[in-house]
Amino acid sequence: MAEQDVIITEVALRDGSHAIGHQFTVDQVVQLSKALDDANVPYIEVAHGDGLAGSSLQYGLSKTDEMALIEAAASVCNNAKIAVLLLPGIGTVQELKQAANIGAEMARVATHVTEADVSSQHIAMAKDLGMETVGFLMMAHMAPVKKLVEQAKLMESYGADTVYVVDSAGALLPHEVKARIRALRENLQINIGFHGHNNLSLAMANTLAAIEEGATRIDGSVRCLGAGAGNTQTEVLVSVLDRLGIKTGIDLYKMMDLSEDIAAQILQKPQEITKDSLVLGYAGVYSSFLLHAQKAAKQFGVDSRDILIELGKRRVVGGQEDMIVDVAAEIVKKNTAVM
Ligand SMILES: CC[C@H](O)CC(=O)C(=O)O
Ligand SMILES: [Mn+2]
């Protein structure tokens, strides 16, 4: 029997960046990475929430240069491999090279679910750099299964070792996850992964549905330290998989301890499904939009849920963060006209 049936990537140090306004410090990253490595977590993703070079006015400025965070994480891990996320158009092959030089061993190249073709250069470069490569198809609820398969096959043809179904909005229902993973399983030769968000309280159910259909690469965030309501909670996932007899190779007690002692201290407030994170899942909006929408709601004196619902109707995708303020301003205009 294999040592691991399911391989977990811990994403708190990248996806969790959204939840804390990209304020990670070297000290936090060192503490968490060291503990995750000690708990035998195989992959730890570290980067700005929006991937390499995400630090900007558009996406939010990082407190600490992400390269310093990546280097710090790599320097304290004995077994865990450091993964980085890269969204072509935000990050470039230059940042990828830099990350590889300082210890990143896995490149996860993320595109909108219908735009896999923009990943070919970055996947090829990651392979040239000797990195393990992942194609990350975001906002997977926005494309029909056939389209998703077509896009995943493109990533496979560029050399990706794994393709992920990414439920960025936490909008997918378990039967929708099943259909997607099954179709990928039937049509691709490479590993299939799943990345969930808990906005509709379905991250665990969706993850189990994905595993049932053959996904072997799964993302989790300890203490739900991820965008929106967070991701599938890693320590809970490890417990559930253990009960199912599915091996992750992760030490459960150590995972629970680091959740309590380190991750909980990083969160500015305990992670829960709030009215706003719930609306992300309900309306199908990118989880990373949460803090931006809340900020705009405050600035314009409107209900953040109205902004998110409208963004969902307009099918706004990553990279269109400027629309959040536009929508808030339009709601004010509309409300004033009615008065
Ligand atoms: C903005 C990138 C995004 O946070 C990637 C991701 O984790 C997702 O789409 O869920
Ligand atoms: Mn995510």
Describe this structure in words.
Helix content is 46%, strand content 13%. It has 2 domains: 7-266, Alpha-Beta Barrel (TIM Barrel); 275-338, Helicase, Ruva Protein, domain 3, CATH 1.10.8.60. It has helices at 16-19, 26-38, 66-76, 93-101, 120-128, 145-158, 174-187, 203-212, 234-243, 252-266, 275-283, 290-300, 304-313, 322-338; strands at 7-10, 43-45, 81-86, 104-112, 132-138, 162-166, 191-195, 217-220. The model has no long low-confidence stretch (mean pLDDT 97). It has 14 helices and 8 strands. By secondary structure, it is an alpha/beta fold. The chain binds ligand LKJZXN5G and manganese (II) ion. The site of ligand LKJZXN5G has 13 residues, from loops.
CATH class of the largest domain: Alpha Beta
In DSSP terms, counting alpha (H) and pi (I) runs of 4 or more, how many helices? 14
How would you spell out the order of helices and strands?
EHHEHEHEHEHEHEHEHHHHHH
- CATH fold-level topology of the largest domain: TIM Barrel
* Cofactors, ions, other ligands: ligand LKJZXN5G, manganese (II) ion
Output mean pLDDT. Answer: 97
Number of structural domains: 2
Work out the number of β strands.
Answer: 8
Main sheet attributes: strand count, strand direction, barrel closure: 8 strands, parallel, barrel
C-alpha-based Rg, rounded: 19 Å
Task: State the CATH architecture of the largest domain.
Answer: Alpha-Beta Barrel
